[in-house]
Amino acid sequence: MSSGSVSYRTLFSLPGGTFVTVSALARLPLAMSQLGTLLLVSSPQVAGRLGPGGLAAGIVALAIAVGSPIFGALTDRHGQRTVLLVQSLVGGFALIAEGMAAEMGATWPIVATIGGVAGFFMPQIGTMARVRWRAMGAANPNIEAGVLETSFAWEGSVDEAAFALGPALVGILAVLAGPVPGLLVAGSMLLVLGSWFALDPTSKLVEGHRGGTDRPGVSTPLERRAPGPLLTAGVLATCVGMIFMGMVFGSVQTGTTSLATEAGRPGLAGLLHALLSVGSAAAGLALPRLARRLDLVARWKLFALGLAVFAAPLLVVHHLGPLVPALIVLGMAAAPYMITLYSVAERSASAGRIGTVMTLMAAVNSLGYAFGTTMAGRLADRGGATPAYAVTFGVAVAATLLAVLVARKVTPVGG
């Protein structure tokens, strides 16, 4: 499969504007759930302390990481429609129940447990959309390579935008009306938009596999061969790379929070961290043009190196002013790096395993985020923002070494 691209107009014409819009908005509840839980449990209404709030948010993140590959495997076998509908309904009601439990005076462990249920059932809309784009590409073989390149760039950019807008929405609602409305809104959005995405006509393109075909969404009742191995060399390597990316996000958020707190402006931490997503989303949208010039191996190495180079200035940033351009520039390597990893994983995935692989990538990214925040948090408590940002730089260097050592070995020929 050669590299190439199609225009966004051509891409969006395949499923129609409704799919594009709904899939973009339906991933906001995922981006809102962790911060919403953190603010709720940390508030005087529940625990009144940051420690339990952080633990509750970690429970949600861990539940997402555990549940995502399980439901991804179910979509591979049974299709997306029913599985995502169940996830959206249970997850949406759980988010609403979490907020209502706090209103009724529940203790923080109960609120956190309900949040964990919501996290476990939380649908990975972005990864499921990638699976559908893959099926749309297979249905249009003359532009398949271009559909994959452009759709993965789009999805990566929308993911970044969602993780900037979701927390911002939670924060605004918390300022205006307290911590509960953020979770109520997230739950309501998941009930409506998640179910809408589950029932969208494009779900018929991925009705499930019982093995035997390399084409997504193309199977026959006669095909009963078991799916191939899950952890191919390419999938394993890209999962490691995605853990590194999660650690970058987690350590940057921790370092930025520390620096903002030191400056007496802790409320700016969320807005500053969103700048990382701004640069990332913008660069991701432009990636299809670069795909015409560089293959996947070259892109993997280039953007991993970009992470390391662009993370280095954080080590000498001690004020909020210089932090703004530093975060925007670092973000310009983030989305292209993630999009490249998703593309390599998609080409490396065994037949009938694509849903599992895509959700596994999202899950290990969440794990990396947890590792990054934990490691950087301990260092920030001892020495402030610079040691936290040192984690960012060190992980980015590790990502570069991974790319140099394995990218050419594990990327399928033609990638």
TrEMBL record:
<feature type="transmembrane region" description="Helical">
    <location>
        <begin position="50"/>
        <end position="71"/>
    </location>
</feature>
<keyword id="KW-1133">Transmembrane helix</keyword>
<dbReference type="InterPro" id="IPR011701">
    <property type="entry name" value="MFS"/>
</dbReference>
<keyword id="KW-0472">Membrane</keyword>
<feature type="transmembrane region" description="Helical">
    <location>
        <begin position="388"/>
        <end position="407"/>
    </location>
</feature>
<feature type="transmembrane region" description="Helical">
    <location>
        <begin position="302"/>
        <end position="320"/>
    </location>
</feature>
<feature type="domain" description="Major facilitator superfamily (MFS) profile">
    <location>
        <begin position="234"/>
        <end position="415"/>
    </location>
</feature>
<dbReference type="InterPro" id="IPR036259">
    <property type="entry name" value="MFS_trans_sf"/>
</dbReference>
<dbReference type="GO" id="GO:0005886">
    <property type="term" value="C:plasma membrane"/>
</dbReference>
<feature type="transmembrane region" description="Helical">
    <location>
        <begin position="83"/>
        <end position="102"/>
    </location>
</feature>
<feature type="transmembrane region" description="Helical">
    <location>
        <begin position="230"/>
        <end position="250"/>
    </location>
</feature>
<dbReference type="GO" id="GO:0022857">
    <property type="term" value="F:transmembrane transporter activity"/>
</dbReference>
<feature type="transmembrane region" description="Helical">
    <location>
        <begin position="108"/>
        <end position="126"/>
    </location>
</feature>
<dbReference type="Pfam" id="PF07690">
    <property type="entry name" value="MFS_1"/>
</dbReference>
<protein>
    <submittedName>
        <fullName>MFS transporter</fullName>
    </submittedName>
</protein>
<feature type="transmembrane region" description="Helical">
    <location>
        <begin position="326"/>
        <end position="345"/>
    </location>
</feature>
<dbReference type="InterPro" id="IPR020846">
    <property type="entry name" value="MFS_dom"/>
</dbReference>
<feature type="transmembrane region" description="Helical">
    <location>
        <begin position="357"/>
        <end position="376"/>
    </location>
</feature>
<keyword id="KW-0812">Transmembrane</keyword>
